[in-house]
Amino acid sequence: MRAALQSEIGQDKLEVVDDMEAVGLGPGKVKIQVKATGLCHSDLSAMSGVLPQPAPFIPGHEGSGVISDVGDGVTGHSIGDRVLVCWLPPCGQCSSCKRGQGHLCLASLANAGTPNFRRAGGDVFGFAATGTFAEELVVDAACAVPIPDDVPYDIAALIGCGVTTGLGAAINTAQVRAGSSVAVIGCGGVGISVIQGAKVQGAAQIVAVDPVESRREGALRFGATEAVAPEAFDDAKNRITGGEGFDYVFEVVGKSATALTAYKMTRRGGTVVIVGAGALDDNFQIDMFSLFFDEKRILPSMYGGGDVLRSYERTIALWRAGRVDLAGLITHRVQLAEINDALDQMRTGVALRTCIEL
Question: Is the CB of residue 137 less than 8 Å from the CB of residue 14?
Fold first, then answer.
């Protein structure tokens, strides 16, 4: 089968090969024929080494498709079921799950060290124990979440990561209050989803901050009340909040520099939400006096900060009701053979989300 392969960490291009094999089908596993997958910035971060990932590997973790085979002992799944790929499903048994923090469950990531692909040259890993840049993949049955018949594959793929992460940051983690002021730094697919979540929550002002003009224009279509380049952010703060700072500032880049900007742009007693996934050696530093005196809450948001399965259901309900626009997030479409075009679209910022169709 065909797949997009990263042979070594640090390569900026993927090689599309046709001799890959999805392996590991057995008890508790299912095989998925991938229909659509989104390109998430986390895939680029894994390729560059910002996020830890053994190589060689197949990127991709935001996908959907049809179950083509099931292993022994699998219940609740049948061949032909339409599913999305959940890269971090709650196991329901670990201490995080028992505390009601299933989004912090690490059980499924234990499989990240087990290859789930193979080709003539040897074993190949799937990113985050998935690897959706392939025509087929084998995952734990819990990673295959059934989707209703009215949800298209491309939209289902986005729900599997970026949309859930962004909406959840605003709704679950920050619990944005109606009438509040919000700023979002970084307006790709996840940042736009944060904006939509803030709108659903009733924020009065939503300022989108991004260096790319097309993304700023996109943010306005999805609910931002104003969109500015980074150099105009301070002026926006002064005009909109009287210099006090925003009630909520979301960092959706994954850099300490933008996290510090988010902190500075938040009012005293306000909330900073860290959504972007950054590097282990990129340290965020604040002086202890400000940390104490300004009493700003710093809230990391992992995968939307809530029960991902409930979040999927909520997202579908909001989409059906026309409260969020998911189809509009897909600004570019490519075939698997054109995957490197998709990488360029994300790196340059021209795409909110590129859908790879298989």
Answer: no
Q: Which of 79, 81, 41 is nearest to 62 (CA)?
A: 41
**Type and span of the H or E element at 340:** helix 339-348
Residue with tokens 């952010």: 233
CA distances from 318 to 71, 160, 185 (A): 34, 15, 24
- Cβ proximity of 339 and 7 under 8 Å: no
State yes or no: cis peptide before 54, omega within 30 of 0: no
3-state secondary structure of 258: helix
Main-chain phi, psi angles of 37, to 5 degrees: -150, 140
- Taking the CB of residue 178, how many other CB atoms lie within 10 A of it? 8
Phi and psi for 309 in degrees, rounded to 5? -70, -40
Is 115 in contact with 3 (CB distance < 8 Å)? no
Q: What is the DSSP letter of 127?
A: G
* Residue 156 tokens, joined: 């289902």
Q: Which of 159, 83, 82 is nearest to 324 (CA)?
A: 159
The alpha-carbon radius of gyration of the chain (Å, integer) is 20
Contact in structure between 144 and 85 (CB atoms under 8 Å) = yes
Q: What is the pTM of this model?
A: 0.96
The string of DSSP codes covering 159-188 is HTTHHHHHHHIIIIIS-PPTT-EEEEE--S
For residue 217, CA distances in Å to 82, 104, 212, 222, 227 come to: 34, 34, 9, 9, 7
pLDDT tens-digit readout, 119-161: 998 999 999 999 999 999 999 999 999 999 999 999 999 999 9
DSSP single-letter state for residue 6: B
262-296 pLDDT, tens per residue? 999 999 999 999 999 999 999 999 999 999 999 99
